[in-house]
Structure formats: C-alpha cells, structure tokens
Amino acid sequence: VVFPNPIALGYVNITSRTSETIKASVFDILGKQVINSTVLNNKLDVSNLNTGIYIMKLTQNNAISTRKLIIN
Q: CB of 14 within 8 A of CB of 39?
C-alpha cells in the first residue's frame, strides 16, 4: 500500500503484508532513475523530487509492482 498520493509531505508511506525488505526505484517521466533506495521504517524520502508525475517500481523478494507517484 502506497499513501499518501499525491504527496506534499516529502515522504511516502509504503506498507506490505510481509516484513521483507522493500527496494524502491523512482523514475521521472522521461525514464531517468531519480531514486534508488531501500524503504526504511515504511517511509521513502521523496523530498528532493520536483513537482510532477513519477513512476515508482517496488521490489520485494521476487515480486515487482509499479505505481504512479504524484508530487505536489
């Protein structure tokens, strides 16, 4: 679960049913990777991102999911 979205707080909460490590990659609309990080304490710092739309790829074990991320 990813919330809040749109984001105005500088971080996004990411929760999972399991306690396995979650890796997050965030890409801008042109496909350039702007964040490659591990989610710590269910939070991902996005404070360095400019206002816009991003694609976030979350990897946990062998499962991969993608989400649209909107920064206000």
A: yes
Tokens 């979350």 correspond to 58
Q: Which long-range contacts (CB under 8 A, 24 or more apart) does 57-60 make?
A: 57/24, 57/25, 57/26, 57/27, 58/2, 58/14, 58/22, 58/23, 58/24, 59/22, 59/23, 59/24, 59/25, 60/16, 60/18, 60/20, 60/21, 60/22, 60/23
d(CA 33, CA 53): 13
Quick check: 59 pLDDT over 90?
yes
What would the pLDDT profile of 9-58 be if each residue is shown by its tens digit?
899 999 988 889 999 999 999 999 999 999 999 999 999 999 999 999 99
Q: Read off the tokens for 35.
A: 């964040």
